[in-house]
Specification:
Germin, 2 domains, binds 2-acetamido-2-deoxy-beta-D-glucopyranose, disulfide bond, manganese ion binding, alpha+beta, 3-stranded antiparallel sheet, 10 strands, Jelly Rolls
């Protein structure tokens, strides 16, 4: 009898914890279901729904991800002498749930690639802001012979960053040669040349061969088990 009561108490506590955790896990914006959602108010020019209607991806241009205007200070007409310019999804439709990249000084060429391999690219000047949709490969390059400065801000406690080339050619341990020669359709010599540009531990060739052999043996073993 006593045990039953204790069990009930435990169940009640778990229920309370479950309810608490249910309410706290919904504090963030929902994860995107597509590469991007350029917010529009008119459902007739849109396809998906995610807070705002999302603009038809076929009609989306790089300008939807671009906000210009922070190169000019706002008119100030209040006794505090302060003016804040709010840029939200209504002024900047591509911002919808994303972080932003702002150019403070100089000029940068920037772009990103969607999961359909479409490139959106543009030139960013001082005061311009672009959004890079979450998880999509993107780049910035200073094409001018002068310093550029930019600030990136993301809606996360722990915004991670992976440099794509380092992620392929500078990993520890190395990604197996076979993966890279297949993916890039070039020979091992070229892969090693690329690795030598990005890897800090290029001399661990023997370790790589041992790993390669081990992985091949394991693959073979799994296949034998299946048969
Ligand atoms: C770039 O700027 C530096 C410093 O002003 C100058 O020495 C150099 O010649 C410039 N290079 C080109 C390609 O304009
Ligand atoms: C690898 O490919 C390059 C470029 O096609 C070629 O010049 C080189 O001889 C090749 N190396 C080997 C070992 O096949």
């Amino acid at each position: 009898m006593e045990k039953k009561i204790i069990n009930r108490a435990i169940l009640a506590i778990f229920t309370v914890i479950a309810i608490l955790s249910f309410t706290t896990t919904h504090a963030a914006d929902p994860s995107p279901l597509q590469d991007f959602c350029v917010g529009v108010d008119d459902p007739f020019s849109a396809v998906f729904v995610n807070g705002k209607f999302c603009k038809n991806p076929k009609k989306v241009t790089v300008n939807d991800f671009l906000y210009k205007g922070f190169d000019i200070a706002s008119e100030i007409d209040n006794p505090q002498g302060v003016e804040a310019t709010l840029v939200n999804v209504d002024k900047f439709p591509g911002l919808n749930t994303l972080g932003a990249f702002a150019v403070i000084k100089g000029t940068l060429y920037a772009g990103f690639v969607t999961t359909e391999y479409k490139l959106y690219d543009t030139i960013l000047n001082e005061g311009d802001i672009i959004v890079f949709p979450q998880g999509l490969i993107h780049f910035q390059l200073n094409l001018c012979n002068s310093t550029a400065l930019a600030i990136a801000a993301f809606g996360s406690q722990n915004p991670g960053r992976i440099n794509v080339v380092d992620g392929l050619f500078g990993t520890t341990p190395k990604i197996l040669d076979k993966v890279l020669t297949k993916a890039y359709q070039v020979n091992k010599t070229i892969i090693e040349e690329l690795r030598s540009q990005f890897s800090n531990n290029y001399d661990h060739v023997s370790i790589d061969s041992a790993r390669s052999l081990l992985l091949e043996t394991l693959s073979q073993k799994s296949k034998d088990l299946e048969a």
